[in-house]
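User: What would this chain look like folded?
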Amino acid sequence: MSVFKRGGIYHSEFVFDGQRHRGSTRLTNRNAAMRVESIRKATLAERRAGLIAPKAIPLFRDFVMNEFLPWDKKEHEAHPRTHQRYKVSAKPLIEFFGSLRLDAISAAEVEQFKMERFDEISAAGTNRDLAALRFMLNFGMHIGHLQRNPVKGVRFLKEGPGSMRIVSHEEEEAYLAAANPLLRDLAVLILETGMRPQEVYEAEKANVHLEQQYLFVPRGKTKSARRNIPLTKRAGEVLGRRVQATKGRYLFPHRSDPKRPMGALHHSHYKVFEQTGREKFRIYDLRHSYGSRSAMAGVDLPTLKELMGHSTITITMRYIHPTPEHKRRAIEKLEQFNAEQVIALADKGQGSPQKSPQSVRVQ
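Assistant: Here's the prediction, encoded as structure tokens.
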């Protein structure tokens, strides 16, 4: 039988015209589920015979906003965080695929999205968006918009700390010298504030407070992304210039529509490496560089966590990878501390002013 039960719900699976059709009937009664399957087969037959017009395929943007998200909100009513996860991923997905008809999305477009998204966020974040796209298009198959899911053959990115790349100050200098003014401003803000690229793209004039020297980030990928970021002198100069130069709501407005924020600058970014011949890095690696430099400069982890908008301090700990020079300085500090204790002991002719853990008696 082509009707089978899974998790208390009957599903239908059959082959029509050489293509497999599979989906939930949302029914718990077997006979009712079989009737639903018969209706689906009859509809396909009538469509093939030209008795009914084929169903109009929506644009990806309309499908997500008008069909998927309302259904998903109801489907995950008991798990609102799951629905929120798909809402977060929907934004970059709509930005990339929004103007395409659902059946025009191919594996090639998905691969292109994967690589461009990886320029902006981590491998794990990119994979979350790909998983969301796969789930959305599976729903599109379920309601008859698609015959196959183009995400199925796309390999997800390998996750782990190996995807982190730290930009040296020498690389930064060469990059900024070759970058156009818009890209240079973007890069400087990420390097000086640790903001995510998307946070910079969506930065608004109303959230810039130059007199108090901070920038407010009202939203982001997690609740922790909402934060105030103190400004360095260089960041303040960039923001002050953009507040004066740009019109409308956004500091980085879209080229053709100032009412929308700017899109990603992938073309300009990679053009820099073509000009300089230097080793490539991602725009998101500028944020990694901020985190790494801050950690090596002695910024404590709780403070760095708040500055970068991390949800847990475990994520922040990725930036603790001191250079040999910093390890040498740490040993020099230890040597200086030990020497001071010995001198203090000799001067006072009594016990060390700093008790060692071994000398403390535990009751």
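The chain has four domains: 3-48, 60-162, 166-319, 334-358. If you want, I can go into more detail on any region.
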